[in-house]
């Protein structure tokens, strides 16, 4: 599969270019709004072509695009790629609105194209192991989930994420959307209602940099989440508590295959092993298979719409102070 990168981004250079190549794909071209940036990025990463015009990239010999531009650009770029007959793997959140995200996904389905959302956490060996524990009944009926995803946003990633609401900045579209997908992945159901509070506590300039929320699941499970850009010294975690046991995972909300998982039951505590494969390489392998008619992406377009819908509800609840229903735009 030949790929065009829409966005000369940090995540592409740090993770996705290598993952595409590890999965047997070829990075054929890259797009940046600056011709100089496109050409220098292409040269640095051994990409044959660097362009600043989207039509030029889409007219090239590529099968798929990976979109990692700022959030407000995703919709138009994805729709153009779909119109050009390209498979699409898009960064989260898919769009600035749930309606636009749903339109992207429906357009790809109507065109018979594969559409994926780059939710990396569900590809981690840690989360796959935890999901197996939940789905196999090792902890009984799930009662609650607690997500600790307060981190310190590295300086080189700050930029628009901390000061540009028009580009989709803020911790809710950046991190809460990932947690929504991960909770959905573990529980196999979609949040129905949320309550939330947000603040700007040190980094946010016109956007929120910290948020806490509680979600009600249709089954009655309660979910508590905390996302932040400002916490320098804490660790991340994911806990699932049930009638027969608890799963306590530490340092697993990351792009790296690290962390530890403990299962607690009446029998005592058990360390749970997990695979330490590259999260993005697994995602790209599944995407390649799906584009060739085998299976589905690890997170497809519907997953992307639903994670955005939860994040949008959290944002609305935090601003209004009201319990808010999640609107999934009919997907």
From TrEMBL:
InterPro entries membership: Gfo/Idh/MocA-like_OxRdtase_N, Gfo/Idh/MocA_oxidoreduct, GFO_IDH_MocA-like_dom, NAD(P)-bd_dom_sf
Domain called GFO/IDH/MocA-like oxidoreductase: residue spans: 128-248
One Pfam match: GFO_IDH_MocA_C3
Gfo/Idh/MocA-like oxidoreductase N-terminal domain boundaries: 1-119
UniProt protein name: 1,5-anhydro-D-fructose reductase
Record organism: [Roseibacterium] beibuensis
């Amino acid at each position: 599969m030949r790929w065009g990168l829409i966005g000369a981004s940090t995540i592409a250079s740090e993770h996705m270019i290598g993952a595409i190549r590890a999965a047997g794909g070829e990075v054929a071209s890259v797009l940046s709004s600056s011709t100089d940036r496109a050409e220098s990025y292409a040269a640095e990463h051994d990409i044959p072509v660097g362009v600043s015009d989207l039509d030029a990239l889409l007219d090239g010999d590529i099968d798929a695009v990976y979109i990692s531009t700022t959030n407000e650009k995703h919709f138009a770029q994805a729709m153009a790629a779909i119109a050009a007959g390209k498979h699409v793997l898009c960064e989260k959140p898919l769009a600035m609105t749930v309606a636009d995200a749903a339109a992207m996904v429906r357009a790809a389905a109507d065109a018979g194209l594969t559409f994926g959302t780059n939710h990396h956490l569900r590809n981690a060996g840690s989360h796959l192991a935890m999901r197996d524990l939940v789905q196999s009944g090792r902890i009984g009926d799930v009662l609650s989930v607690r997500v600790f995803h307060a981190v310190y946003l590295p300086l080189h990633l700050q930029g628009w994420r901390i000061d540009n609401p028009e580009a989709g900045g803020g911790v809710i579209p950046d991190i809460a959307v990932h947690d929504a997908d991960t909770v959905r992945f573990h529980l196999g159901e979609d949040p129905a209602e949320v309550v939330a509070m947000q603040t700007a506590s040190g980094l946010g300039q016109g956007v929120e940099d910290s948020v806490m929320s509680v979600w009600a699941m249709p089954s009655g499970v309660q979910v508590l989440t905390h996302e932040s850009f400002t916490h320098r010294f804490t660790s991340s975690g994911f806990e699932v508590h049930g009638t027969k046991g608890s799963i306590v995972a530490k340092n697993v909300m990351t792009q790296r295959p690290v962390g530890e998982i403990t299962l607690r039951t009446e029998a005592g505590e058990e360390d749970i092993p997990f695979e330490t494969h590259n999260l993005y390489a697994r995602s790209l392998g599944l995407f390649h298979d799906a584009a060739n008619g085998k299976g589905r992406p690890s997170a497809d377009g519907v997953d992307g719409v639903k994670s955005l819908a939860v994040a949008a509800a959290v944002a609305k609840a935090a601003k209004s102070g009201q319990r808010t229903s999640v609107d999934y735009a009919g997907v």
